[in-house]
UniProtKB/TrEMBL annotation:
EC number(s) on file: 6.4.1.4
UniProt cross-references to Gene3D superfamilies, sorted A to Z: 2-enoyl-CoA Hydratase, Chain A, domain 1
Name used for this protein in its record: methylcrotonoyl-CoA carboxylase
Domain of life from the UniProt record: Eukaryota
Amino acid sequence: MHRCFTRFADQGRQCSVRCMSSVVRKRSALRSAFPVLDVALQPIQRHVYEANLRNTHICLKKYSELKEKVRKGGGEKAVARHTERNRKLLVRDRLRLLLDDDDDFLELSSFAGLGLPYGDVPAAGCLTGIGRINGLWCVLIANDATVKGGTFYPITVKKQLRAQEIAIQNRLPCIYLVDSGGAFLPLQSEIFPDKNHGGRAFYNEAIMSAMRIPQVAVVCGSCTAGGAYAPTMTEEAVMVHRIGTIFLGGPPLVKAATGEEVSPEELGGARLHAEVSGCVDHFAWDEKEAFDCTRNIISTFNFQLPEEEEDTSTRGEEPRYSSEELLGLAPRSYSYSLDVKMTVGRLTDGSRFQEFKARYGTTLVTGFAKIHGHLVGIVANNGALSYEAALKGSHFVQLCDQRDVPLLFLQNTAPAAAPTLSTSQAEMNSNLLKAQASMMSAVACASVPKITVVIGGCHGADSFAMCGRAFDPNFLFLWPNARVSLTAPGHAGSLLSPDDDEEEEKQVETLNKRLEEESSAFFSSGRMWDDGVILPQDTRKVLRDSLDIIKQQRYQLSTEKQQSVLLRM
Ligand code: COA
């Protein structure tokens, strides 16, 4: 019996040694290193590189000016009113108390609200982003009450809905820091009635809960009228004594209706809502206590994060080329684009890249790489999206979808559509149309996560095939040099008939001027056609965070429910 057992044990050991060596082989096969890209800057490329660099520095100056404008929120007077008279913390200090590390906060659309027809609304009056709380990535939506009392402009509504959409698409918990006077009344018609207006945020809260996306509100200011539903519809709410108020109509309305004088605290303060109405679940004496309480609530979300997830910054080999060189690779215009593999080599682990169809359709570069250990499929423009390039793109996108590999699009599309000046060109263009439609379809239907970074131009239908905003990427970021418009500035002539009269020329000139103004990255970001402008040298970090964020949903333990948690007694 004993001998028999030993034999089995020996056999087992041998078998396990065999199995282990095959595991080691399999693992090393999976780990096998992709080829290193040889993409050092060549002397012949230097003049283009320098011209790009000069342009990028101009864009970075504008970037810094806008950052400073946003940092000031609603201005000195409003900040003083907020901190001294109302004794509240500023929105960024609130985030500091809540987040594990505020340097790690992936702020979204920070330039939203700048340069709009109705004026500048710094950060759209509401900070949004994704940060770690107790190790868990959460979407944060935080009103900035220094900007017109934290009221909702149309762009604020858009920003909040986009943040909720990100929470839904990536299944991230959502934390609302509520401090808002509700709708910005002069623009009520652009905020209230339509599907994607204010009410949609409440609708989303309900369906997000049913989708098991946990949501918590911290009431650290006013929640008036429509705003009162925001905390009441979250799954759990914390309210701060003397600072938080929730009511449908404030004291002036009560006075007007009944003649009764009532304080905000009596009408809808933290005591009333925690002890009598039950609209909130936790009472906090001050903001610090409220954020500590919120951190504890987040620990009950029942995610089990693997330990290795805690520090991802050192995961993966660093690229062999400096990320600072991306500043000179960011094209000032399409004709200043250098080989996109030079950009790829400054983003991927060890500058390694397993290229797919390297010799076919070379105006699109496709292949696999790792970014901080995350395997991704890269699709990058390297010229016009030709017939062959579009077929290759379609093939590669479907391949990544089949293998569940997230896609990274590096977008720099041609400035204008291909012209049709002869019948043979018309035939070529029809074929091109079919190939591009096929790629668009592959991109639209791919169920893997997609991230798009516009590193140059975002023009015409090519930009849809390269997963532009309408194609629903999980995240879409712009470099500061990016240009977003139907056709690039200087190419308006391609949109109008080629008549040679003076009137026509004037029209082209006016349109080109308009394209110049309306295509800048900051114009786009002010209107939230993207998730923010990022610095080229930060791209690898932003991609790492985005990929970590997308992956987190794997670690949630609870199962999907049919109903939302809403019934408060
Ligand atoms: N629409 C448009 N502007 C508004 C506004 C609203 N709903 N609520 C406040 N504001 C403006 C104020 O006019 C003021 O503008 P100013 O800086 O140009 O003077 C600014 O926001 C700050 O408001 P103020 O009242 O001075 O600050 P506060 O800190 O004392 O109070 C609120 C802020 C939000 C509590 C208070 O303004 C309030 O109760 N507003 C009305 C809320 C309401 O009834 N909303 C209904 C929406 S359906």
